[in-house]
Amino acid sequence: MERVRVRFAPSPTGPLNVGGLRTALYDYLFAKKHNGDFILRIEDTDANREVPGTEKYILDALEWAGIYPDEGPGIGGDFGPYRQSERKELYHNYAKVLIEKGKAYYAFDSSEDLEKLRNSKQEEGIPSVKYNHTTRLGMCNSLTLSDEEVHQKLENGDNVTIRLMLPSDREIRFSDEVRGEVRFNTKELDDKIIMKADGMPTYHLANIVDDHLMQISHVIRGEEWLSSTAHHLFMYDAMGWEPPKFAHLSLILKPVGKGKLSKRDSAAFGFPVFPLDWFDGDGNLQFEGFRENGYLPGALINFLAFLGWNPGTDQEIFSLDELCASFSLDQLVKSGARFDIDKAKWFNQQYLLALSDDELMTKVKDFLSEDYLKFDDTYLTKVADLMKERLITLKDLGTQAYYLFELPKEYEEKMIRKKYKPELKDHLDAILALLSEEYQSGSEIHDLVKSYIESNELGFGNILPLFRIGLTGTMKGPDLFGTMELFGKEECTHRMKIAIESFDKIFEAKQNQNA
Ligand code: GLU
User: Fold this and answer.
1) Any idea where the domains of the chain sit in the sequence?
2) Is 116 designated active site?
3) What is the C-alpha end-to-end distance of the chain, expressed in Å?
């Protein structure tokens, strides 16, 4: 088999969303599965649509995701340059070859001419108006003008474009690695522009020239490019080049309702659809990223891998290496895959659980406020251990378990009303007195508390909720004895003293109400 070379070819028209990242991932997995090369090519032939900062964003996102290219802009490689804007001259030559072969022609139509073409057809009730074999002879191009006129227009640089000359009725067939046999008839296609009046090639020409020159073996890209493939194959054939193999990926769909996942869904559904935060030109945060929302790259990658691919087994957790080993194009699904943020959360949870306490602590630190970072690493590692099972994202620790770093802001009143009586105060104090000044493990504390409650016939349900709420403010916190271990005797005593003052007030209010 020839060397596998797969390219990811984004246009720098804005940040890469998770759909683009999934395409890059599949490109990468396929390349690595076959010990091949993963190439990044920036398709920047449309300067008007270019958004500054996009290229850096793409490289950063790929690096964060762990799927960094072997070749690309700023990376190097034997087939550069990897930005199409730096390859401009090349495309001209190939466009000329197509003209010489009678597969393309010059067109000089003004935008008014084109507008007129569209309108005239609308009047006749024909819905889709194409510049093709049915209309080209009524337009201003090298097929209708004399050689002299053409020459003159080229000299003057009058709106010069180059269009493909598709046959009036030819079937173009290919076997898509995902969809099987796909057929198009040139009858229905338009004579696409391949060189624009500004002297830049369009995507179509630049794409096939580069795929050929960069020796791309497989083109794995989004479904939206399926119909362009007919034009691409026409050009490969015209040039006498062997085309690469094609695989068109199904869409990622909105979580609910119809249509493709879009950047607007982020605001609508309240979850990120971009890998990293994206800032607009004024430095304002425009879209939130998975990274900044506390997702691990491995989890996002694992989640994205499953949006359109099925390994055919029950295994769900795949490291990047395992994905590379298992991935195959024939396991890609043809239908669209629904974006389900709960599944992304589930993956993230699994990846967080698999971290050591130390690793988790290091990662969580990026999400903690200055105040919380005053706690030393030993303390933070214990917090990580205590909270691990409850975290969905790295962000949760600082927000949900704030009470491990500062005093509870409030106490769950309903429970206190139900459980607290001033007579219990002495018991709470007695239990605190039993704790040692020295370090004690959660299980030692558990045994102490248990034997006190049993020998005083108090019942766990009467005492433990008071400690829980007294220490953390909530019944939903982590393991009580683990929390007591973390705090130690002094902090537990301090917190309970403050809590009991509030409990007394709650009790008093209840008495007054009942009176
Ligand atoms: N530049 C195209 C895009 O932005 C690439 C399509 C392709 O991979 O051929 O998606």
Assistant:
1) 5-72+207-253, 90-177+180-194, 265-356, 357-401, 407-514
2) no
3) 89
CB 308 within 8 A of CB 271: no
pLDDT digits (tens, 9 = 90+) for 306-348: 999 999 999 999 999 999 999 999 999 999 999 999 999 999 9
Residue 183 CA to ligand 1 centre (angstroms): 21
CATH superfamily of 90-177+180-194: Glutamyl-tRNA Synthetase; Domain 3 (3.90.800.10)
> What would the mean pLDDT of 102-119 be, rounded to a whole number?
92
Give DSSP secondary structure letters for 258-309: SSB--THHHHHHTS--BSS-EE-TTS-EEE-BTTTTT--HHHHHHHHHTSSB
Report CA(41)–ligand 1 centroid distance (Å): 9
Measured between alpha carbons, how far is 82 from 41 in angstroms, rounded to an integer? 5
CATH annotation of 265-356: 1.10.1160.10
- Comparing 357-401 with 407-514, is the CATH topology the same? no
Q: What is the mean pLDDT of residues 192-210?
A: 97
| CATH topology assigned to domain 407-514 | Arc Repressor Mutant, subunit A (1.10.10)
Share of the chain above pLDDT 90, in %: 92
* Strand ranges (E), 98-192: 104-107, 161-164, 171-176, 180-185
Which one of 33, 196, 263, 343 is the catalytic residue?
Answer: 263
Selection from 39, 27, 30 nearest residue 75 by Cα: 39
Contact partners, residue 508, CB within 8 Å, separation at least 6: none
User: Hey, what are 153's tokens?
Assistant: 């227009």
Burial (0-12, 13-18, 19+ Cβ within 10 Å), 426: exposed
Q: Whose CA is nearest to atom 3 of ligand 1?
A: 10
**Whole-number Å distance between alpha carbons of 499 and 515:** 24
Q: Which amino acid type is present at position 286? A: Q
- DSSP code per residue over 360-423: HHHHHHTTS-TTGGGS-HHHHHHHHHHHGGG-SSTTHHHHHTGGGTS--S---HHHHHHH--GG
Atom of ligand 1 nearest to the CA of 220: 8
Torsion angle of the four alpha carbons 327, 329, 333, 337, in this order, in degrees rounded to the nearest 10: 60
Beta pairing, strands 218-222 & 245-249: parallel
Give the H/E segment covering residue 484: helix 480-514
Q: Which CATH class is domain 357-401?
A: mainly alpha
Residues 334 and 354: beta-carbon distance below 8 Å: no
The reply to whether ligand 1 has any atom less than 6 angstroms from the CB of 20 is no
Prior bond to 81 cis, omega within 30?
yes
Specify the CATH architecture of the domain 5-72+207-253.
Answer: 3-Layer(aba) Sandwich (3.40)
Ligand 1 and 221: CB distance under 6 A: yes
For strand 252-253 and strand 193-195, is the pairing parallel, antiparallel, or unpaired? unpaired
**Most ligand 1 atoms within 8 A of CB, residue of 8, 27, 28, 207 to mutate:** 207
